[in-house]
Amino acid sequence: MPATRTRLILTTAFATLLGAGTVAALAGVAAWRAGWYDIGATTQHFQPVYTVLEQGMHYSVRRHARSVAVPALGDRAQVLRGAAVYRDNCAQCHGGPGVAPGNHGLSMQPVPGPLVDASRHWKPRELYWLTRHGIKMSGMPAWEFHLSEDEMWATVAFVMQLPTLNAADYRAMTAPPGEPAR
Amino acid sequence: MKAPIALAVLMLLAGCGDAGRPAGGVNGDPARGKVALGQYGCRACHMIPGVTGSKVYVGRPLEDLAKRHFIAGTLPNDQANLVRWIRDPQAIDPGTAMPKLGVSERDAMDMSAYLLAH
What we know:
The complex is a heterodimer.
Chain A: H1 2-34, H2 47-64, H3 76-89, H4 91-94, H5 103-106, H6 118-121, H7 124-133, H8 149-161, H9 167-173
Chain B: H1 2-15, H2 30-39, H3 42-45, E1 70-71, E2 75-76, H4 79-87, H5 89-92, H6 105-115
Antiparallel strand pairs in B: 1-2
C-alpha cells in the first residue's frame, strides 16, 4: 500500500513537471515565432537583465583571460603607438577624454562606453583578451585578425594610461601624424 | 520706503514655492528626452535614473539634477543653461572631458526636461 502511494505521488509529480515544461516551451516558441520581443536598439533592456548579462560577461572574460601571458607594458614608444591604434580603431565607438564617439557608437545598444575607467575594472591581460576576441552580441569586434600582436598590447598599454590623461593630453597623444600636437 | 522691501521679500518667498523646480518652468517632452539620453550615449558616462546601463562614475550621476544650484560648477541651474551645457560643454569649460555630442536644440530641450524631472 505505501509503495503504491509513493508511486502515485512520483507519477503525479513527473506528469505535472512534464506538462508545465511543455506549456512553458510552447509559450516560449509562440513568443519567439510571433516576434513579440522588440529587438530595436531604441528600447532598453530591463536593468536586472542588463546587469546579469554584463556581470556574466565579466565572469567569462576573467576566466578566459587567466592563461594570457602579459609582456612588458608602458614604455613611452609603446604607449604612443597604442594611442595611434586607439585613435584609428577604438575612438569611433568609445570616444576619449573630451572627444565624442561617432554616431554609430553613440546609438549602439549596449552603448560601448568610455574606456577611461577600463583599468579600474580589468587587468591588462583581460583588456588584451577583450581586444583580441571581442564580445558576442555586443558590437565589440574581435581584433585578432586585424591588428598585430604588438598593436593589441600597445593599445592595452595606452588604455591603462587613459585615467591619467585630461582632454588636452589625449588630444596631444592622438594628434594625427604630421600635425603638431596642440 | 518699506513697501518695496516687503514686496521683494514676498517675491523671493514666492520663488521658493515649487521646491526643486528651476525658475521659469520646464519645456520639452521628457518621454522623448529619455530615449534621446540613450541615443546620444549619455548613459555611457552618467548614471541616470530610469535609463538602463552600467554602474559608471566617469561623469557625475544625474539624479536629483533639479535640486542642484549649479551645473558644471559655474552655471546657475536652469533649463536654458542645462541645454547650453548639453549642446556644447567645451564652450563653457574648455578643459572638460565631456565631449560635444552634436545634440540638436530640440533633443537637448527634451533631455533636460527629463533630467530636471527625475
